[in-house]
Amino acid sequence: METLVSSELGHRLKLLRQRLGVTGAQMAEEADIPLPVIKKIEQGYTANPGFYVAEKLIVRYGVNANWLITGRGEIFVESPELEKQLIEAKAEVREKESLIQMLQRAMVSLKKTKRGAQQPDVTPVFGLFSPNLVTSVTTRIYGTPVNG
Q: Which of 60, 80, 82, 130 could form a disulfide with 31 if both were Cys (CB 3.0 to 4.6 A apart)?
């Protein structure tokens, strides 16, 4: 059984994740840190995870090294440009998630109408997607492309 070592660094790592709006798995992937390492730090079972973890968090997220190590100062290095990029990236992710949901709904709709004799007009549904994507999806469902 592992011994609880320190929860201060773990608390700061969890706070960082919450401020970034990411899960442990997302942080692990984005910062290239093994998920078990992140979990052990957050749970307080790793007092000194090593410089490579701090370096990856600092570089990937613009974290203030002093805050990460000691808890003093601001969480992020003050960089208006970095903050702007983060806001833009989050907006882009939300937009892409919305488009994916629209595509999923459209595919469900197309599958339901597949049984009928008539292919639907997909122009309103697929208007936001590239013609290649529309062709690929409709060919997969109908065996031939649907004109949109």
A: 60
